[in-house]
Amino acid sequence: MSSPPLEARSLTKHFLAGDGSELKTLRGVDLRVESGEVVAIIGASGVGKSTLLHLLGGLDLPTDGQVLVGGETIAEMEEEPRAAMRNRSIGFVFQFHHLLRDFSAVENVALPMRIAGAQKSEASARAKSLLDSVGLTDRRDHLPNQLSGGEQQRVAVARALVNDPLVLLADEPSGNLDGPTSKELHRLLFRLREEQGTSMVLVTHNLELARQSDRIFELKQGILHPEGTEEVGDRVG
To answer: Is the pLDDT of residue 25 over 90?
Structure first.
């Protein structure tokens, strides 16, 4: 039986508060994401959703517990191989696109492949293909400040997928967009899932986006609680 793209086992994360006391943000999180599955994580502001996503993506290490990406345990890696694993196996999409302002769209998308050692021609061809897939064929050579907010996020999605990652992690991917543009981005994410089979974990306040996922969890008091799509749908309703 092959390993899932992403698995968390008994994750805890503690921080020191200003008064020296221990703040327990995550208290034993278990999550298994199967191949091609989309999981949504909802919850109130400040409960630790972004903290959890950073742990799942190897941007931070847990106080205790394990994160496995394709069967590899992140915490057992040194920083350099962990960074290489992140670049190779995990795609990130954040609320703000974080595009390099002096790089064109195609250069931004190609960058993770170049970091991974791909030739410029190979990375450029893959980047152009992905920009075509997200509807930006005519905007490949534009700089970020020449693109709309929705177009910038589509470039960020293409960049996240350029290395064909095992899992895509998105933190409020449409949180900085207006309603119609948000819906367009949501349709894009699920179309790409169907076309490429990419597993996704979506942290979102957008219950309409969450309702489209295969499974929904609410993070409360440091623990993930499974939610039904019908229940979330009623909240959207």
So the answer is: no
Contact 116, 90 (CB under 8 A): no
Share of residues in the chain with pLDDT > 70 (%)? 95
Contact between residue 219 and residue 8 where contact means Cβ atoms under 8 Å apart: no
The DSSP result for 50-117, as a single string, is: HHHHHHHTTSS--SEEEEEETTEEGGGS-HHHHHHHHHHHEEEE-SS----TTS-HHHHHHHHHHHTT
| SS3 call for 237 | coil
CA distance 174 to 182: 5
**∠217-164-75 over CA atoms, to 5°?**
60
**Residue whose pair of structure tokens reads 């169907």 in the numeric block:** 194
31 closest CA partner among 1, 45, 62: 62
Count other C-beta atoms under 10 Å from residue 157's C-beta: 23
Q: pLDDT tens digits for 131-189?
A: 998 899 999 999 999 999 989 989 999 999 999 999 999 998 887 777 888 888 888 88
Structure tokens at 194: 């169907």
